Amino acid sequence: MNVKNIRQNKLIKAGLIVVVLGLVLFFLYPYFPIDDVINLGLDLKGGTRIVLQAEGIDDMSGEERSKTIDRIVTILNNRVNQYGLTEPTIRQLGDKRVEVELPGTTDPEVARRLIGRTALLEFQKVVKSGSPGGSLSQTNLSQEVIPGRERDEGESIPYLVQKTPLMTGKILKDATVKTSQDPQNPIFVSLEFNSEGAETFAEVIKNLEPNQDRIAIVLDGVVQSAPVISQSIWDTAQNSNSIGRATIEGDFTADEAKRLAVVLRAGALPVEVNVLEQRTVGPSLGQDAIHAGVLTILVGFILVLLFMPLRYRWLGIVADIVLIFNMLIMFAALSMFEATLTLPGIAGVILTIGISVDANIIIFERIKEAVVSGKTGTASIRDGFNKSLSTVVDANLTTLATAIILMYFGTGPVRGFAITLAIGIVGSLFCALVVSRFFLEETWFGKKIFPGKLADTS
């Protein structure tokens, strides 16, 4: 190989390493604290985990059941993302369950109200309303009693309504939170109907009595509000074939109104879901897990950093530099792909430390064998890398294949472990075969290890 080609290869290797290092530093910004750099899972950050079970799908075919669960996951993702909860994890668990993890959300009621609703919206004519905390009796089979939304005092108003709904949420186009100057209802939810719904709503209003009849706006069997038909909206219906908007007023807090709008906007779940399991991890427990995990990583990392120079001297220092580089690559990849680091994921980081060093040990032993056989420095390095290439690649690829299988079929902790392990293996291969070789062949480390022997470039 001529001098020109050697220089070109050196520049390519150096450029590749610099680019990777630049990307690492970019994706690791702002570097500290760790939860500003990487998404932390429920077991590290604290939060709420809820397992939902879909009802009424036992008689479905396998394909229908799968589509139903996929639809539930999609709708719940839309609700959670629109509401603004950070770093949610929503996935299928078995053939009829869905697991929802909301890191940082330690109020389980927020999660239950947001994801536990089927979002069946109905508009029903009110026959009679009761008093707070009171009760009503059903007078005939065409009617039913529905509770109103609980007030701050914990009491609700019962409503006697016609069973057959005047309209349903299928005609809804959008739902947004609005504010008004009315001190009684400063926050309300504005409903926008699609073209069919606007015509249906106008027809419904025409058949009611203004300033007398009321429409109950019912969400999942609870009356959110029951406004009286005003004279102005009745007049509008008489003069128009469509009314595109309506409002839900009910002395809402800003958070309640936002949650209601999100549930309506994201759409109804295809089947009813029940909360099967609920677990809340407090922030203090999460912090304890972080401290324990970080301490474990640091202890293992430091022990390896100390062992390598003691065992391999200058080669060990190269291994330490490469190990640090690999750790930076791993955490930068977690940040870049917005992956979530869990407690089992920390175990994957620790295992990666061993895998990264193991690759270098194999290479170093082959180099030492070449030196003992009488080869020059550069020849020994090349011989060591060439002879160990198949062993290092085969060992890492088989482990990577296992990690991919765990990622695909595993859930929860198993998947978190597999993700960090897979990233660590890819980083280990790059660092062992590119970074280590560059340091030994192209820097003063090689001259320090093999003084006077690196002039041979054959």
What are its keywords?
disordered C terminus, 458 residues, Alpha-Beta Plaits, Multidrug efflux transporter AcrB transmembrane fold, four-stranded antiparallel beta sheet, elongated, six-stranded antiparallel beta sheet, Gyrase A, domain 2, 3 domains
What does this structure look like?
The chain is α+β, with helices and mostly antiparallel strands and 458 residues long. The chain has helices at residues 3-28, 34-37, 42-45, 62-83, 108-115, 195-206, 231-239, 254-266, 283-312, 314-336, 343-372, 377-409, 413-442, 444-449, and strands spanning 39-40, 47-54, 89-93, 97-103, 121-129, 143-147, 158-162, 167-168, 172-179, 187-193, 215-219, 222-225, 245-249, 273-281, 340-341. It starts with a helix and ends in a 9-residue tail after the last helix. Strands 5, 6, 7, 8, 11 and 12 form a six-stranded antiparallel sheet that branches. The longest helix is centred in the last third of the chain and has 33 residues, at 377-409. Helix 10 (314-336) crosses helix 13 (413-442) and helix 11 (343-372) packs parallel to helix 13. The chain has three domains: 3-37 and 282-449, Multidrug efflux transporter AcrB transmembrane fold (Up-down Bundle); 47-116, Alpha-Beta Plaits; 121-266, Gyrase A, domain 2 (2-Layer Sandwich), CATH 3.30.1360.
